[in-house]
Amino acid sequence: MEAHIMQVEIWTDVNCPFCYLGKKRFNDALIEFDHADQVDVVHRSFELDPTAPTGTSGNVIDHLAKKYGRTLEEAEAGERQLGAAANEAGLEYVVTGRDVGNSFDMHRLLHWAKELGQQEQMLDALYAANFADAEPLFGDTERLVRVAVGAGFDEAATREVLADEQRYADEVRADERQAQEFGVNGVPFYVFDRKYAVSGAQPKELFAQALSQAWGERPQPTLLADSDACGPDGCAVPQN
Amino acid sequence: MEAHIMQVEIWTDVNCPFCYLGKKRFNDALIEFDHADQVDVVHRSFELDPTAPTGTSGNVIDHLAKKYGRTLEEAEAGERQLGAAANEAGLEYVVTGRDVGNSFDMHRLLHWAKELGQQEQMLDALYAANFADAEPLFGDTERLVRVAVGAGFDEAATREVLADEQRYADEVRADERQAQEFGVNGVPFYVFDRKYAVSGAQPKELFAQALSQAWGERPQPTLLADSDACGPDGCAVPQN
């Protein structure tokens, strides 16, 4: 998980259907990429609604209708569109009955999983639990524990992380601060070696193209100063 | 340890006196840097002599004299110079009696420690064991275990990492491949957000200046494409 030649940072929220879809499309592009084994992918935290109260905000369609001033029919139609796009990419998507809510605890779990080198597994499990299953997920510690355990995480350790709301909270906020620095106002947001960015659940072909371009133009740092180093000929002060 | 605004990657070898000195001078600059809490430092592996046989290569002065065709007096004078520079920076330095050898196992330990979020502790302990103490270190598993335990690492876990030579070996090689990509032929080598680089144990003032410059000019990724994202106004296809 370390020191690959190119780093792709993906800002994401477990609440975000386009993030779920984008992850699949990006991965489809990545597995066909010639240098995939030299690409390090890291998922970073972004809360679509950091002001959402802790726990659940109730049924997703009711919530979207209320929040954006749409009718229930309009909100459901939007979800159906998202579901169709997800299905087309090979993903399951439950259109009605899911809940929505504050995702901060899930971002903490994702940072913990990253430390264990198992961030992909945690994110896939959370996405599946949220989008491919109607059972409420937000603010339900028992369900989060089941999801994590189902993805291979230790039950007691998962409970410990969930119980202490300070754990990985700084890491979540640091990701969000970084997103702010980059002017990110929507997710998914993909950053390639901090040089190029792509916003949104792009088609697989576009991700393939972005990977190629970012790879071909990956940065070479500019040397500001050179002296007093050890090299193959020993440790000597270079002649200036 | 994650997602700070600026990342500094430092290629280093535990065999390298200028790396030991550079770490102190860089840290002295970093603690006075205004945005220190937003800087993420990661130490990367570089073997000065990857062809060194596993274990110890014997006394450092004998080894340097033989390897670079110097007299023992010349080799010792070089070490005295390095020792004086280290002392001036506030570091202990044993001039004669230390050994030298293959550092691959130490790099594996450093990657393990990184995963635990304790890379600084491991590196400081290894530097001190190598440069501030005459007792042989290279290829001495028992001493490496004592050094790691003294720095707060679990004994059984340290033994496990040392016993399995495949553990973190890929990570060490990935760091070295990355160094090669950047044309690094000596260490320490400092890379700021993959945009700027500094080679060698520079004076603290130069590190301070490099930190400021890299911070002021930290990269903003160029947006290649924008669509289908979720933002504060919901999940919608942007108008192109």
From TrEMBL, chains A, B:
Residues 7-211 form the DSBA-like thioredoxin domain. GO terms for molecular function: oxidoreductase activity. InterPro entries: DSBA-like_thioredoxin_dom, Thioredoxin-like_sf. This is DSBA oxidoreductase. It comes from Gordonia neofelifaecis NRRL B-59395. The lineage of its organism: Bacteria, Bacillati, Actinomycetota, Actinomycetes, Mycobacteriales.
